[in-house]
UniProtKB/TrEMBL annotation:
Record keywords, A-Z: Membrane, Transmembrane, Transmembrane helix
SUPFAM superfamilies the record matches: FMN-linked oxidoreductases (SSF51395)
Family: Belongs to the glutamate synthase family.
Superkingdom, natural source: Bacteria
Keyword Transmembrane in annotation: yes
GO MF, one example: glutamate synthase activity
Coiled coil feature spans: none
Transmembrane segments: 12-30, 36-54
Pfam (any one): Glu_synthase
Domain Glutamate synthase: 158-477
Keyword Transmembrane helix carried by entry: yes
Protein name: Glutamate synthase domain-containing protein 2
Length: 549
């Protein structure tokens, strides 16, 4: 059938209907003013349709005037539709409904039991569980503590489960207040994030770990370099229990950032020590040190300036030779941090480029194993405490990480859920519906500090109690007794392995005995790592030269 050149394509049907509706309703307005509103609606649709056809930015809108906006709307609420109506309770995107629900229930201090058995597919590859004992024990005191900085003048007794780094600026004022008040109630620590110590950290008075990033916020000169004088002012506060140098983070390792001047409010400027309304650059690397030895000298200097408080660093593992270079610097200089926090590549509370979120940085298990094994193999493990962070929301998450060598765990998103976060995935827009990750004073102001701080404390207490229950069922009395033999993973339909058999573990001093390590990454990179440089090994540089020829 031949189609007339003047026939109206179906894709213009919405605009055509709007024009017809406008033509028909305008005369009716003179008959009854009640039709005025309907005429205005059709007029608005006609104007929108005409604009769609003349604008040049969106081809879909030009081809489908008016109709395209229905697509854009449905696309905009796609994540919510999938989260609320399509995803199963156990599908992790990035946290499953089951994971979030257990946090909500423990935060609200309500029943967290489940009926009718597990919803998980226990025969699927990757399923993990914890072995129990035929001789379980009852743990009387579940307040598990870890001493950090035993050789410091002011060692710190930390909980086994704490709040990971989240800055004021990323989180709202009331969210920071609630987290710190919850930490005070529950007796655990609150990491400030690299945004430094704000007035909202100070008001409740809970224990703080002050994180210092490459921007040196709270301890910087006007040119962005490190200021010892300003460092001492914050580091000697009684509320500050430890100092953490951020080398990199799991959400966006190796990435700096710019805080636009429009977001630098007087309160953020006060906390970070920067001018109000000016862009603030957080470099990708530190200016206070450039080699492994200089890093350790910086650690020692901060410990001295703080009056003997534990000082350590946080990092996401990338190039293994760079981490080995730090370990070799410890061996050669006799200097070492009091603690190391390993941040897994699956971490991230705010916003980061997609490639950084998905494809950059070593996941927590592999990163933790590398750090733990390196310190064991050099007989440094007994001197350095290890914390770990990366998608931890439950007691089993904690147990499996402690079994691989960590002394304690931190969580960020878990505590955000305790504050009421609904995983709307709007953290980077400022439109957080729960008032957690926003600087909008109206949205953030609706978050009730008195209520949420108790929920934060409840989540901590009930999760640690659940950990105690797991340990007791396994016949253990303290998290330090957990080992890789206690956690099991299914690697196929018919094969299971404990972590002890699944992962390699070095013997104490194995890297010091002069023999070539058996494990691949150590065999390849350990011998060529240098304490005085983060540069790649010579054989890698030669490979690069070959490619460039």
């Amino acid at each position: 059938m031949k189609i007339s050149r003047w026939s109206m394509p179906l894709r213009y049907s919405a605009l055509t209907a709007s024009v017809i509706g406008l033509v028909l309703t305008v005369p009716l307005v003179f008959w009854s003013p009640g039709f005025a509103l309907l005429a205005l609606v059709f007029l608005g649709l006609v104007v929108l349709g005409v604009w769609d056809m003349v604008q040049r930015q969106r081809t879909v809108s030009r081809n489908y005037p008016i109709l395209a906006h229905f697509r854009y709307f449905l696309e905009s609420i796609g994540p919510e539709i999938r989260q609320y109506f399509i995803q199963s309770d156990t599908e992790e995107r990035p946290f499953s409904r089951e994971q979030r629900t257990i946090v909500y229930q423990r935060a609200k201090n309500i029943l967290d039991k489940r009926p009718f058995g597990s919803q998980l597919e226990m025969s699927s590859e990757g399923f993990e569980w914890m072995d129990h004992s035929i001789k379980p024990v009852e743990i009387q005191d579940p307040d598990f503590r870890i001493t950090i900085g035993s050789r410091c003048a002011k060692p710190y007794s930390a909980s086994v489960f704490n709040i990971s780094a989240m800055s004021f600026g990323s989180l709202s004022a009331n969210a920071i207040r609630s987290l710190n008040e919850g930490a005070k109630i529950g007796g655990f620590y609150h990491d400030t994030g690299e945004g430094s110590i704000s007035r909202y950290h100070r008001e409740p008075g809970g224990d703080l770990v002050w994180e210092i990033g490459s921007g040196y916020f709270g301890c910087r000169h006007e040119d962005g370099t490190f200021s010892e004088e300003k460092f001492v002012e914050n580091a000697t506060l009684d509320q500050v229990k430890m100092i953490e140098i951020k080398l990199s983070q799991g959400a966006k390792p190796g990435h700096g950032g710019i805080l636009p001047g429009a977001k630098v409010t007087p309160e953020i400027a006060e906390a970070r020590g920067v001018p109000v309304g000016e862009d603030v650059v957080s470099p990708a690397q530190h200016s206070a040190f450039s080699t492994p030895v200089e890093l350790l000298e910086f650690v020692d200097r901060l410990r001295e300036l703080s009056g003997g408080k534990p000082v350590g660093f946080k990092l996401a593992i990338g190039h293994p030779w760079e981490w080995f270079a730090i370990v070799k610097a410890m061996l050669e200089t006799g200097r070492h941090p009091d603690f190391i926090v390993v941040d897994g590549g699956e971490g991230g509370t705010g916003a980061a480029p997609l490639e950084f979120i998905n494809r950059l940085g070593m996941p927590l298990i592999e990163a933790l194993l590398l750090v733990h094994n390196s310190l064991v193999g050099t007989n440094l493990r007994e001197h350095i405490a290890i914390g770990a962070a990366g998608k931890i929301t439950s007691a089993f998450n904690i147990a499996r990480i402690l079994a691989l060598g960590a002394d304690w765990c931190n969580a960020a998103r878990g505590y955000m859920f305790a504050l009421g976060c609904i995983q709307a995935l709007n953290c980077h827009t400022g439109r957080c519906p729960s008032g957690v990750a926003t600087q909008d004073p109206v949205r953030g102001g609706k978050l009730d500090v008195a209520d949420k701080s108790v929920r934060v404390a409840n989540f901590h207490r009930n999760t640690v109690q659940a950990l105690a229950n797991l340990l007791g069922a396994a016949g253990l009395n303290h998290p330090r007794e957990l080992g890789p033999e206690h956690i099991v993973r299914r690697v196929s339909k018919t094969t299971v392995h404990s972590y002890m058999d699944l992962y390699p573990f070095l013997e104490p001093g194995e890297l010091l005995n002069g023999h070539e390590p058996e494990h691949g990454v150590f065999r390849k990179y350990w011998s060529c790592a240098r304490a005085d440089s983060f540069d790649p090994p010579e054989f890698i540089l030669k490979l690069r030269e070959t490619k460039l020829r």
